[in-house]
Amino acid sequence: MKKYILFFVLLAGYISTLFGQAIGSWKAYPALQIATYNVPVGNKIYSLCNGNLFSYNTQDTEVYVYDRLNGLNDADIQFIRYDDTTGKLVLIYENGNVDLVYSDDDISNMKQLKDKNYSNLNINNLAIEGKTAYICTNFGIISLDTEQEIFNSTYDIGLNVKCCLSDGKLIYMSTDEGSYKGDLSLNLLDKNNWKRMGDFTFDQIVSFQNELICLKNNSNLYQLDKDTWTPTVLQNGAFTFLSCNDNMLLTGNASKIYAYTAIGQYKEIVQPNVFNYLTYYKGTYWASQNLHGLQPYTLSGDRLTATLSAIQPDSPVRDYFCNMHYEGNRLLVAGGDLNYNSLNRDGTVMYYEDEKWHNFSEDSIVEKTQQKYNNTTSIAQDPADPMHHYVSSAGHGLYEFKDLKFVKKYDYTNSPLKTILPDDKYPMNYVRCDALQYDSDGNLWMVNTEVDTILVVLKNNGQWTKLYYKELQKAPNATQIFFDSKGRMWMNSKRLDWGGMFFLDYNGTIDDTSDDTHYLRQKFTNQDGVAYDPNYYNCFAQDLDDQIWVGTNIGLFIIADPEKFTQSDFTYTQIKIPRNDGTNYADYLLNGVNISAIAVDAANRKWIGTASDGIYLVSADGQEVLQHFTTENSPLISDEIQSIAVDPQTGEIMIGTFLGLMSYKSDASTPEEELNKNNVKVYPNPVSPDFNGVIAVEGLTQNAEVKITTITGQLVYSGYSNGGTFTWNGRNKSGKRVSSGVYNIISTNAEGKKAIVNRITFIH
After folding, report:
1. How many helices (H) and strands (E) does the chain have?
2. Measured over all CA atoms, what is the biggest interatomic distance in the chain, rounded to whole angstroms?
3. Could you tell me the pTM of the whole model?
4. How far apart are CA 484 and CA 491, in angstroms?
5. How much is the pLDDT for 20?
6. Please, what is the end-to-end C-alpha distance for the chain in angstroms?
7. For residues 156 and 140, is the Cβ–Cβ distance under 8 A?
8. How far apart are alpha carbons 658 and 121 in whole angstroms?
9. Does residue 19 surpass a pLDDT of 80?
10. Where are the alpha helices (DSSP H) in 286-326?
11. Phi and psi dihedrals of 18, rounded to 5?
12. Which of 123, 62, 118, 128 is nearest to 89 (CA)?
């Protein structure tokens, strides 16, 4: 009997895996493509990738990804270092949080520094000596005991510490204002006990064979005299990395590498490379190669030769998810936003399909265009060719891609797109192109903001045209275009001095504007006559009842009847939630909350993202808040939500945050047109004794009625589907878990004209 139970448990696990995430579960999608730093430890290589972490096991080739779901306590790792005394990997995050990773991958958290909530904390470096970790900050050094897992001291000296090193007796550090050393036998909490050693500063320092070796970024390699701190050039050059491991000192740049086995004894390796960081461990050189991942090399003669392909777990290229939407079952992502202070965000475009990431190639774009490639704000997929895409940029116009590769860039030199600063020294940097969207005829619409005529269309015949409307003249920050169920165009603007919603009914005639109806609405009143003037219209979405939900910096509003938007007596609707306190008072739903993203699921419920308060799930009519996820009560990695997209088939909610992508498996999916037993999936089935989640019945029609009965026909539970999914917690109406046995699942369509029966087995 035990063998049968084990078989059923294993089968249930297989079925859950087969059908995807369990209802109510979370999934993380950390970016692991860009390798920036690595630490070899035994048979593991820890690889830091743009703030995320994975390990590679050299014995069994296993890749283990660390995230919030398996132990990490934060996001955006700044530095990793290994403490070989305690056998722990020390992680420090951008906000000062600290995790200690044990050899068995258990994780201990030290959040005291984070909890201090320094308003301007900057983590510059991390060093380990014995059982002590030294955190270099913009005001001094903080030490922690990695064995006792407590913070020891805060040496607040009022200086920006770039790096430090300790030999157990002294602490050596470099600041913006010179170099210092401190005797640990003295009270170093007193800044007067730090001895200034001179004006010489450096960015990295290591101890190699009891000598101090330091590097000024893109400069020479130096040896420091321990007494006088007089720098002596050890190697001339413009070096970008420095490491010391397994009695090997390495430094180098994109063309040369120097491998020291002793002071004055080195091997020069003249070899073009893409190394961001290089370490040595037991005969193998481990290279962190930016976009080219983590890769092992051995030294063959005078060259490093790769021994394996680059190690790059399937993942997004970067944690940038400002703009996401689905085309069919494909999630399209453009990583940049229109916050012009963030124009240094590298161009990031990707899509996710069939549980695999496809990152658009960035090779040769800069070389071919002679311009930076950054802040990609939206992506549109050609309805006639799923491998043909256009990508907009907040500063450089429109990019065309085919088969994930760059084809052409459009700007003021070869298209109607204009620059907002034609007399500037670099006018090509100010071609603001945003909000791409195809209409039902295959014409590509875009917004060329801050110029005289901002609406531009690339027609399906390859011809360009522009549409001028006076009220849109020089409008900025238009982040979203969409065509409603009747083919009319809606557009928003986020900018403080121009925020509003724009409506256009062009009657299907792009080139003839004489029959157009258009209206820009900025200030408005709600149904109760309350006046509003939002600074930012951040987002909007049309639901299954054709209502348009609008997110602003001051709350959530609804265009209940789009037909009336242009009428003089039009009002926005705010949903009222009764207080249930014995009065007749009610509160507006999410009033005053900065709404940053809205998506509608198959059950017509709304997933509402906020700028600082996580994500809300509200019922179809908005009368009930069904869920509220934050970093405090869920695995969500940031409360700053930038985008939300709902997988139309599975109901997976893709949540783009400031720190990366998470997903939540909801209990709603797209309904089937007809009830067909071949489409219905029940999982997990069988239900194992230790299963405490919800059972899902997927593949149903809209609002299908589902009844759970015993084999003899006794009713156990009943309910209705959310879209095409029905969920059940495995308990009867009294809340008691059902007994072992086989149960019928009887599903009937909304009209009551067709029913099918599935069966599910419970094992106790």
Report:
1. 3, 66
2. 92
3. 0.92
4. 11
5. 55
6. 12
7. yes
8. 18
9. no
10. none
11. -60, -40
12. 128
